[in-house]
Amino acid sequence: MKARNRHWPIGVLLWMLLGVAMAENNPAPQEEIDRLLQLVTGDESARNTALAFVDRHWRPEFTIMVLEAAYLTRDAPTAAKLITLLEQKTGQHFGYAINTWYVWLWNRPPRLHPLYAQFKSRLYGLIDPKFSDYFSPERTSTIRLDEVRWGGVVQDGIPPLRHPKMIPAGLADYLEDSDIVFGLAVNGAARAYPKRILAWHEMFTDDIGGVPVTGVYCTLCGAVIPYVSRYRGVTYRLGTSGFLYRSNKLMYDQATQSLWNTLWGKPVIGPLAEQDVTLERLSIVTTTWGQWRHRHPNTQVLSLDTGYRRDYSEGAAYHDYFATDDLMFNVPQLDKRLKNKDEVLALLFREYPDQPLAISAAYLARNPLYYDRIGRLDFVVLTDSSGANRVYEARGVKFVKWDGDHELKDDKGVSWTLDEDKLLASDGRALTRLPAHRAFWFGWYAAYTHTRLVD
Question: Under a CB-based contact definition with an 8 Å cutoff, are residues 154 and 116 in contact?
Fold first, then answer.
């Protein structure tokens, strides 16, 4: 039997050649991700091959991944090549100003690769394997994933204080009256958390007055917010994720590794982002140790015995950051009505989640008795002689006199006394304390660009 020569029709041959060319010019998404990762993980030859691949197949979706690779690579020549590539492909010329690249990118419509979550998971998993879980592709995200930046530490690399040792006020001889503390009172149990300690840990978890509490301190945005850790019967064990969103610390919960927005009090990436979970805020006051002890002589306060070795002297942590108006991690937009790190009193009530309010701390210092309204809720802000702010519902009561300490009088001549959780009238009425906290203006505005500002 003679063998027959097979002659392919010319159309079939052209179709096959076209298919090869298309595969070359349009690589599969998985190959693109693998190549982009080699910019960081490969040896010199692999990095150069990957760089040529990215150059040849460039599309805008590569921008954020090349930027992250340039930021994380330890090879200076590769970083230089990646910056040059970014400038050539985008037409922007920001050089090594990584923050400027991010701001430019965030102010453009999002262009993310379909496998960007996988890229982020694998890339940051090289730093801490626990990071891999944060960004796995099947996870829900309610924020722009390219706005999530690594803060430079591993998970709980800034160690939270879990059930920290507390001591009576009389034993806290390490504190000066002028030292800044964050004061919290829950069901009659008063606690003071000195800034000089909490700035090194940025979070504490404890049971206070029978309530499980997570206090989170975003040092970058100047906000300390205490949350009730339990929601609808579930107690969330929260920690420091190592990542930021708009210069705002992202927490994580140990059970699901979901990421939580600190200023929103809710999960934004992961399984819990699909659920209706928003933690309850508690009232807190930024004041001096002398003033807090004056009001609460039986208060408990953090001990220096934290289990960690740190320089807990006043002003040691974040001294350079707090000393200027510059940001460490940029945000998409700034509002210049106030300086970046001017302090505001931040209010967001559960009944009106879409009506955030910021009141300049300097304005409140000039107006220690201030009235305002959010929705149908009217309230009064009392600023004491130390500059500390407390917010109470008003219910139509108009105060005409406030001694800056404990005593008030309304326009009917009724005397009132200030307590941490309420204002008490001589006729038995009470006005409840409302949650509020201090924050840097830039950080609050970045989280709530629609906020109302009183200044």
Answer: no
* Mean pLDDT of the chain, nearest integer: 93
* More confident: 439 or 22: 439
pTM: 0.91
Express each pLDDT in 300-328 by its tens digit.
Answer: 999 999 999 999 999 899 999 999 999 99
Answer positive or negative: Cα dihedral of 227, 232, 234, 240. Answer: negative
Buried b (16+ CB within 10 A) or exposed e, 115-124: bbbbbbbbbb
* Ordered alpha helix ranges (H), 135-198: 195-198
Query: Residue type for 335, please?
Result: D
As given in the structure block, the two tokens for residue 11 are 């159309």
Long-range contacts for 80-89 (Cβ within 8 Å, ≥24 apart)? 81/51, 82/39, 82/51, 85/51, 85/54, 85/55, 89/58, 89/62, 89/63
- Give 203's strand partners: 216
Q: How far apart are CA 368 and CA 383, in angstroms?
A: 5
pLDDT bin (cut points 50, 70, 90) of residue 24 is low
Say which amino acid occupies 128.
D
What residues are paired with 452 via a beta bridge? 357
The DSSP line for 57-84 is: T--GGGHHHHHHHHHH-S-HHHHHHHHH
Q: Provide the H-helix boundaries in 222-282.
A: none
Return all residues near 376 (Cβ < 8 A) that are at least 6 apart. Answer: none
Which residue in the block uniquely carries the two structure tokens 């070359």?
24
What is the C-alpha separation between 151 and 244, in angstroms, rounded? Answer: 6
What angle is formed at CA 47 by the lines to CA 43 and CA 50, rounded to 5 degrees? Answer: 140
Would residue 129 be called left, alpha or beta, if left means φ above 0 and alpha means ψ between -120 and 50 degrees? alpha
Specify the pLDDT at position 26: 82
Output the CA torsion 321→324→329→333 (10° steps): 150
Query: Tens digit of pLDDT for each residue in 104-157?
Result: 999 999 999 999 999 999 999 999 999 999 998 889 999 999 999 999 999 999
- Between CA 239 and CA 251, with CA 245 as vertex, the angle to 5 degrees is 10
DSSP one-letter code for 147: G
| Burial group, residue 108, by CB count within 10 angstroms (0-12, 13-18, 19+) | exposed
